[in-house]
Amino acid sequence: MEKAKSLTTVLKDIPLSEVLVYIDRRTLFNARWNLKDGVLAKTFNFDPEEKLKEIVRIVEEKKIPHLSLSFSVFRFIKKNNRVEVEKDGGGKTFSVFCFPEKISPEDRDVSYFFRKKENVERGALFAVTAGGGFNKELRSLLDRKRYGDYFLLNGFACEITEAAAKFVNKKIQMSAGVLKSRRYGFGYPGCPDISQHNKILGPLNAHALGIRLTESFQIVPEFSTCGFIVFD
Question: pTM for this structure?
Answer without folding.
Answer: 0.90
